[in-house]
Specification:
- One of its GO terms (molecular function) is ligase activity.
- The protein is an alpha/beta fold and 526 residues long.
- It contains 20 helices and 16 strands.
- Helix content is 43%, strand content 18%.
- The longest helix is centred in the N-terminal third of the chain and has 29 residues, at 3-31.
- The chain is globular and about 80 Å long.
- The chain starts with a helix and ends in a 17-residue tail after the last helix.
């Protein structure tokens, strides 16, 4: 076996192991709450959250789940008691945000807020109707200090969507109390289920405590009362399946139209097998990865028209299409970004804006090059140009971390802080301020210099223990699952699914007009 074949086999084995780990975590999230909670839910004649979503979606249509690993590595269940994603209802691409009542009663924790907020952002920037499947006990009270103040943004987001002409629909399957009552209250269309939905600012016990009034749940906030008396319900369903039928009917009557262009290029599959991406994705991020090999397995017909191939060769730029949608590509070729790469990127981003072409960033970078020679060569100025261009570019950006994403390279390659429309991660990818060994080494150098300045001996044994502890911590905090658990991406994806995921994202993006920034770039330091 050749060295390349051995490396491919090692990459594949490592990726499959990580994918198996992800499958285990995904299965936990898909199961919902405990067996007893699920049994109680079933005994009440209720559908699970994923059954509700499946009935709501068009038959055999895809569902791009978002942030499925939210809350991983925390005290809260994986998935953060909520399911969000992009699906197709009556031929319309929509965002679905659904409480899972089998997980702590569907209560919201800090990661639920992050996940829900991300879904709102995607709906607003891509002009997608927003469907809420509501059954929640409100805030997770032990963590109310982290929920109460930022939680109000969710209601604000619903009103902002409506104000922009983006429809909001609430299907209420159970309790929606206290602050949760404002979800249907601030939605354009509301469906409640007779005898099941309960929507009130305060339940009977709190009403008793606050006012002394004796009230029953049905009179206080039942679906029938809201449909006939308060007017808070637009439709009264007889059961869950009927509520879903009415929800589909509402979407059908939106008369929704995409404002972006449809696919304009041949959408033929790549010439190279996407299965081979498992062989290419480096298990050891120090291994080289030519992004052209990745592109050959995700873009239409493996066609890639490279821009400026002889200049700034650590960054690959060029034009392609995915499922018929034209894209511009910026992809790291050798990890480190030099002055020429940054200049090339800034120019290419401007070209994409002139032609209203969405941009795909394939991250695999250790950052911008450092050292006396490169500082004198103007790496700060060039890097600033690149980051300026990324920051002010108006065309949609999609980012996929396929390897490393360290330091300011994360910023220049459109990391989370730069608001890409979507950001996905391969299981092997890592992201941090720098590599674990480098960071531990920097701290060691600083510690030695500090000891020398104070005239003290340097404790080599303590320093070695510190380096090991720091390396272990930074390594753990740079892994894909850790970052995805904190909703720093929109999901970890199987490399073989990259083309499909990007196609779904591009289709969603084109619900809104796609137009670049043709002037007003600000000052470039030249």
């Amino acid at each position: 076996m050749t060295i390349l074949a051995e490396r491919a086999a090692e990459n594949r084995a490592a990726l499959l192991e990580r994918l198996a780990e992800l499958d285990e975590q995904r299965a936990l999230a898909n199961l919902g709450g405990s067996e007893s909670a699920l049994a109680r839910h079933r005994k009440r004649g209720k559908l699970t959250v994923r059954e509700r979503i499946e009935l709501l979606l068009d038959r055999d249509s895809p569902f791009l789940e978002l942030s499925p690993y939210a809350a991983w590595g925390t005290d809260f269940p994986v998935g953060a008691s909520q399911v969000t994603g992009i699906g197709v209802v009556e031929g319309v691409e929509v965002i679905i945000s659904a409480n899972d009542p089998t997980v702590r009663g569907g209560t919201s924790n800090p990661y639920t807020l992050r996940k829900a907020g991300r879904a709102h952002d995607i709906a607003e920037t891509n002009r997608l109707p927003f469907l809420s499947l509501v059954e929640s006990g409100g805030a997770d009270l032990p963590t109310q200090s982290e929920i109460f103040i930022p939680g109000g943004r969710g209601f604000r987001n619903l009103t902002r969507l409506s104000a922009q002409g983006i429809p909001t629909v609430s299907l209420v399957f159970g309790n929606s109390t206290a602050g949760g009552a404002y979800v249907p209250g601030m939605s354009d269309h509301v469906v409640m289920i007779d005898g099941r939905s309960k929507v009130f600012l305060a339940g009977p016990p709190l009403v008793k405590m606050a006012t002394g009034e004796e009230a029953d749940e049905e009179s206080l906030g039942g679906a029938s009362m809201h449909a006939r008396v308060s007017g808070s319900a637009d439709h009264l369903a007889v059961d869950e399946v009927d509520a879903i039928r009415i929800g589909r009917q509402i979407v059908r009557n939106l008369n929704w139209r995409k404002r972006g262009l449809g696919p304009s290029r041949p959408a033929d599959p790549p010439l190279h097998d996407p299965e081979e991406l498992l062989d290419l994705a480096p298990a050891d991020l120090r291994q080289p990865l030519d992004p052209r090999d990745v592109l050959a397995r995700i873009v239409d017909g493996s066609r890639f028209d490279e821009h400026k191939p002889l200049y700034g060769t650590s960054l690959v730029t060029g034009w392609a299409s995915i499922h018929g949608y034209p894209i511009g590509v910026l992809a790291n070729a050798r990890g480190v970004l030099f002055r020429q790469d940054a200049e090339k990127a800034a120019q290419f981003i401007q070209l994409a804006n002139q032609t209203d072409t969405p941009l795909l960033f394939l991250q695999n970078t250790t950052g911008y090059m450092v050292g006396t020679e490169y500082e004198q060569d103007g790496i700060i100025k060039a890097g600033s140009q690149m980051i300026n261009a990324v920051s002010n570019s108006a065309v949609p950006h999609i980012t996929v971390n396929i390897g490393a994403s360290y330091g300011a390279g994360n910023y220049g390659m459109c990391g989370r802080a730069y608001d890409p429309r979507f950001l996905f991660t391969w299981p092997n990818a890592k992201s941090a301020v720098m590599g674990a060994a480098q960071l531990a080494g920097v701290l060691d150098i600083v510690g030695r210099a500090s000891a020398q300045a104070r005239g003290r001996d340097y404790d080599e044994e303590a320093a070695a223990a510190m380096r090991a502890a720091v390396e272990q911590q930074i390594e753990a905090e740079s892994l894909a699952l850790f970052l995805s658990g904190r909703v720093y991406d929109d999901g970890i994806i199987d490399p073989r699914d990259t083309r499909t995921v990007l196609g779904l994202a591009l289709s969603a993006i084109h619900n809104a007009p796609v137009r670049g920034l043709h002037d007003g770039w600000g000052v470039f330091r030249l």
